[in-house]
Amino acid sequence: MSGPVLxxxxxxxGDGAHPAAWRRAAHSPxxxxxxxxxxxxxxxxxxxxFSLVTLDDGVLPPGAPPDPVGRxxxxxxxxxxxxxxxxxxxxxxxxxTYAEPFHVSGQLAxxxxxxxxxxxxxxxxxxxxxxxxxxxxxxxxxxxxxARETRDGVGVVRALWDSWEDDAVIRSVASSRYLxxxxxxxxDFTGETYSVKGPAIVPRPPQGQPVVLGRPDLVPAGLLDxxxxxxxxxxxxxxxxxxxxxxxxxxxxxxALDTPRASAAERVADLERxxxxxxRGRLRHIGSADGLVTLLAGLRGLVDGVRxxxxxxxxxxxxxxxxxxxxxxxxxxxxxxxxxGSLRSALGLERPANRYAxxxxxxxxx
Length: 366
Description:
Elements: E1 7-11, H1 35-48, E2 52-55, H2 74-84, E3 89-92, H3 101-114, E4 120-123, H4 129-135, H5 143-161, E5 169-172, E6 177-179, E7 189-190, E8 195-196, E9 211-214, E10 226-229, H6 234-244, E11 248-257, H7 264-272, E12 283-287, H8 289-299, E13 305-310, H9 313-330, H10 343-347, H11 361-364
Parallel strand pairs: 1-2, 1-13, 2-3, 4-9, 9-10, 10-11, 11-12, 11-13
Antiparallel strand pairs: 5-6, 7-8
């Protein structure tokens, strides 16, 4: 079967998309915040053939007792995963509502270097008053103000990634020169609430620009590589994808699958006794692996891929790995990242030119 293929991403924060997912996890609660746990889940996703894992985060606890009330920072987890994987893309969530864009830029550029070009960034916002207090920052209460901070923050981060040209690092022992100062640039950003001069303190990332993902209603389309779109049915997803205006679009899909021990409906009902599975306006599949394959096949050509949010990672990821991803691959409906490739190449995105470069390296060499 020829035609466009789907890029598959999966969210691997915590024990799953349901707040009580830990009750059905295959490990003790104490293992949730261990490096071995996150590395094992990422390795399972990589071996299955996913193109990307994302790691949710925020300055506030992810839940309230008795559910998990702590997590390791997404960037730290992403760096650990980068060192223990080889092909899969890794995209932590990093809001810039209160965080310093200069630091965010350096963190993500470092992640791209550590992963040899497999880094992404899921942009979100902090909208709760408690988040401002945790950051020690004045509250940005209105949606317009948060949108401004997100727009400015993403723009600054992208400019800082370009503030080093690709060949700015010399490393010449003979001349005792490490940098070509002429290939470092001030970004000279001045916004409504802050200014940034630059340049960055980390060399340009291997991808030039790590892949930026986010909701198009939160981040201007011109600053995104990948839009994350929602809709409760395929028609709504199709409309959202058509309006996104970004190079790539991934549909958000909540997933609960039948397992050998219990049906999807039984598993959901078991967890619903403890807490509700919040409706975030996404497509939701509760049922068989074959049904999910049919749903995803129907999205082919409408979107460029999907980001799956499994109900319980230990249960659903196994079914995804054994039945769903192989079925999509056999029908040539899903793309698998190649060894040695970047996340941009896996998603079919070009490596962007540096906005500050005046002479291409190959032209200078002539």
